[in-house]
Amino acid sequence: MRNAAYLGVSGTELGWNLFAYCENNSLIKSDFWGCVPSLSVLTQMHNAVQKSIVSFLLSLGIVSLTEVRVCDTRGRYNGRMDVYSYLSNIMYEVKRNNYEGIRGGRSQLVLYANSYVYSLYHLLIPIKTQPKYSKTFVSGITIVSNYCVYYYSRYYPDTQYSLVLYDYFSLGELAEEVFEAVRNKVAEYEAMLKQFSNSVSRETMKILNRITNLVKISGEGAIQTIESILESLMKTNPIVILALIVLLAIIAVAPAFA
Q: What is the pTM of this model?
């Protein structure tokens, strides 16, 4: 925090310490403007994927929660499962799709599978429940800030579908790529249209030259008329010329069917 006017705004004790950057938690929080620390983008992505998985499982009739604690046989804290269903007794661990995320996620799942679910009612009821790996594949897409985050279950024989990996891409970069692709496609269409136009012009010239040769027997006046028509057609849109040729062909063929 660099602005004394924002001291205590976060409502925490460390929020009053002007020299405690991001409340001494710079790995999880960020403070771009130097005013109020907030969760980092990656943390927001992780939390968003957790909530999206809960919603996805709920659509399948599986009620689940996030950040459920587990403990060892002596009740000592062993960590928190990212997503866990008390009724179905299945768990998921959310990690970034990279080597460290995959290795760390699999290790955590093995640890959780050998631990016991911690909750208030487990303190009253002496039944210890060990979470199980999930056989349900989950996947989805969610939006966080200016990023599109997508996730999916990665199957491993030892952890089944419990490891969920996520990755992301910038919506701004995606928009630029789409714009570039559209611009390239437009340029391609323009080149094709130009090539078609040149081809039509060449074919038109061939037909008009044949007509000129055919009417030479009609005298010099007819030739001048054809040449003037030829000069006008050179300035006309190729599509119009093509339509005119089709019309002339229809007129020429019509008497044969009369």
A: 0.56
